[in-house]
Amino acid sequence: MTNNYKVNAEGKKRLKTMIEKFEQGSRYVKITEAVTAKHLSSINQVDDAYLDQRCLKFIPASGAATRMFKDLYQYLEDGIETDFVKTFFDQLDRFAFYSDLKPFIQEISKNQGPQAAVIRSLLSEGLNYGNLPKALLKVHAYGQNSATPIDEHIYEGRQYAGRDGAKLFFTISQEHQELFKAYVEKALAATEDVEIAYSFQKKSTDTLAVDMDNQPFLDENGQILYRAGGHGALIENLNDLDGDIIFIKNIDNVCHRSQVERTIESKKMLAATGFAVKQKIDAFLGDLIANRYDFAEIRGFIENTLHIKSKKTLTPEMAMTFLNRPLRVCGVVKNQGEPGGGPFIVDNGDYEDLQICEMSEIDGNDPKIKALIAESQYFNPVDLVCFVTDYQGKKFDLLQFSNPDRYFISEKSYHGRPLKALEHPGLWNGAMHHWNTLFVEVPLATFNPIKTVNDLLRSGHQPAESN
Q1: For labelling, which of 1, 70, 118, 239 has a CA lying 20 to 30 Å from the CA of 169?
Q2: What is the pLDDT of residues 365-393, one digit of tens each?
Q3: pTM beyond 0.90
């Protein structure tokens, strides 16, 4: 195809930078150790002093929940009743959306309809769940009532993200804006102490798609194709928020309220741990600036609390650089073999520190790296509390602490034509590369992702008395 597209000088510079990344290929982080118990942080006493700060809750929300129902879509294609499909129908009345689906089932029963008709009633013709975002699906039942992930995040946030209520920020797909707004207005009518705002992933963060020869991929109109660059782009949205402490949790990681107490306690523990460390960091920075410090104490804190190992002799100037960064406290759970990233020690050249890495960022073909992955004891459930102001209380520019060289190349297609895509891993990977990091083990009961519809049958999504 002829390259007849037109771009300005700034656009050409951007294209050149992205194409260079495709030519270099996927970049792997250099992990040196898997995080073990010795790298974890803990706190003796959990208090709510952190609530004196401005607290917010940030929830990255998904697009349509299509992938959640992939097994049901497969059944519509081939008619093969897998164990997954059998479980779905055997326990259909345990889903929170069952009461809404029941009228369609009754009508189908009158007409002697097959199971496929029930699935179509759920995904398209009736409830339209296949085209809705996870945020708006009914996931938990409470007697005659039910709750969506939005409702559950509101309920949670009120318990730990503010003394007098909570402020929640969602990132949503633009196509679902009106549905989201209508639902939120209804949800907020029942409470006066919650504020909700939302934003979209910025188009300016989209990344270039190229053909198999690393040339810009052109669509059917001869225009350069850009694609959403992955969750890492949400650092822009996070950077726009005005607050001191920001809780981050994925839209689909919620649990039934009959079991939510451990989640609330865990969030308070993460915030209290981070707040105590943040106070120490601020005090050390004040001492360094005033030139009245115990450098041995500061060095010990950097090495033993923040787990930063400098390959050069640590100087006060270097200590200032290490300390004066945003801080994140990451809950981790025992590794149960779930797909996703985990906590590792990463070699950054001049120093090593704690990072969360996706498997796509790690060279799994390297025998040494493979062994480290096998040793990994913990998993990243995306359970973060972020401290985003400096020692003077001024907001950090979070964009200055990201690492644009953490990316990977994947092969996709566009209308049947192959292409290569440039993707930045999660918000908690390269976008937070130059943050200080603490890892705290949290109970496995706090991790209840909804990746497939049948996950809603797991204990964390059912009333406690039914488990």
Answers
A1: 70
A2: 889 988 888 888 999 999 999 999 999 99
A3: yes
- Residue 418: strand pairing partners: 413
Distance CA(330)–CA(339), nearest Å, equals: 18
Which token pair is 329?
């406290």
Dist CA 391 CA 397 (whole Å): 14
Contact 64, 70 (CB under 8 A): no
User: Is 113 or 36 the better-scoring residue by pLDDT?
Assistant: 36
Long-range contact pairs involving 143-149 (C-beta distance under 8 Å, separation at least 24): 144/99, 146/96, 146/97, 146/99, 147/96, 147/257, 148/183, 149/61, 149/251, 149/252, 149/254, 149/450
Alpha-carbon distance of 135 to 62, in angstroms, equals 7
Distance of CA 140 to the CA centre of its chain: 21
> Which of these, 364, 449, 385, 373, lies nearest to 41 by C-alpha position?
385
For the segment 280-293, the average pLDDT, to the nearest whole number, is 96
| Rounded Cα gap, residues 397 and 388, in angstroms | 9
**CB atoms inside a 10 Å sphere around CB 405:** 11
Residues 229 and 404: their CA atoms lie apart, in Å, by 12
Beta bridge partners of 440: 331
The one-letter amino acid code at 388 reads: V
Inter-CA distances, 211 with 220, 262, 387, 422, Å: 14, 48, 41, 12
